[in-house]
Design a protein that fits this description.
Blueprint (H helix, E strand, L loop, with lengths): L1 H4 L13 H17 L6 H10 L6 H10 L39 E11 L2 E10 L4 E8 L4 H9 L10 E4 L8 H14 L2 E4 L9 H15 L3 E2 L2 H17 L11 H8 L2
Parallel strand pairs: 1-4, 1-6, 4-5
Antiparallel strand pairs: 1-2, 2-3
Helix pairs in contact: 3-4, 5-6
Length: 265
């Protein structure tokens, strides 16, 4: 009809008659957003809706989100701790930007992150399997020391000798004599190879940087924990949610655990 009448399709509108369906969809989008801990944007909400049998356009999802003030944590301004120095150790970059690994535990990456506990800085250490982005080890501590890293490695539910490469960027977080000695002991005991990004080159650790930005945005930034006990409890809960419930675009919108289970079949 538009072609015959020579009218642009963009000028034609229709009135949706089933207002109840609109309300149900709106409530469902709000529910999915809250279940994502205010992290999902329109694309991931679209995927979750498709899983539930709904075919909804991104434009419509965004409109409903805007009308209800659903703003993802990723759009909120974040406080960043300024880094003044980097690790000058002469360690090669064994990862060499080969981010797509074919085997589990081929490369694990780690980072130490600042978190606010009752107005003071505490720390969390996370160890991530680059293969499926799964958090395989984690720990929280009042101090940035070897004990923090040690407990994170202890949480890994696998034989550490299966790890091929342990890679980090050259941030100064691991530039601590006691931490370095612990890492050297682990490397020597389990045959793990140490790898560092090139100085001043964040692209050498791009996937890990992107993943840790997710974790910092969703868990650490703009949050203040009332006690260390609350931090530990919330960290346990977040790791469980991240591994088992949170879908990842890089994993074809699967969770890390589902991806691992499917790849092991």
């Amino acid at each position: 009809m538009c072609k015959t009448l020579k009218v642009s399709r963009a000028l034609v509108y229709y009135e949706r008659k089933n207002k109840r369906e609109d309300k149900e969809l709106e409530e469902l989008i709000i529910k999915l957003f809250k279940e994502s801990r205010n992290n999902y944007g329109s694309r991931k909400i679209k995927v979750k809706l498709q899983e539930l049998g709904y075919q909804v356009s991104l434009r419509r999802i965004r409109r409903i989100m805007n009308l209800n003030g659903l703003v993802s944590n990723y759009t909120v301004k974040q406080f960043k701790v300024h880094k003044t120095s980097c690790n000058e150790e002469k360690v090669e970059n064994l990862l060499n930007r080969e981010f797509n690994r074919e085997n589990q535990l081929d490369v694990v990456v780690s980072d130490l992150t600042y978190v606010n506990v009752a107005g003071k800085w505490n720390y969390i250490c996370l160890i991530l399997d680059l293969w499926n982005r799964e958090i395989i080890g984690y720990a929280a501590g009042v101090h940035k020391n070897a004990e923090l890293v040690y407990h994170a490695f202890r949480k890994i539910p696998y034989d550490l000798s299966r790890i091929n490469i342990f890679h980090t960027d050259r941030g100064n977080e691991f530039k601590n004599k006691i931490i370095e000695e612990l890492i050297e002991e682990l490397i020597e005991a389990f045959g793990i190879k140490r790898s560092l990004s090139k100085k001043g080159c964040p692209y050498d650790n791009a996937v890990a940087e992107a993943t840790y930005k997710i974790i910092k945005t969703e868990f650490a930034y703009n949050r203040r924990f009332s006690s260390f006990e609350e931090l530990e409890c919330e960290l346990f809960d977040y790791v469980n949610w991240y591994n088992n419930i949170r879908i990842h675009g890089s994993l074809d919108y699967k969770t890390p655990v589902v991806y691992r289970q499917q790849m092991s079949l």
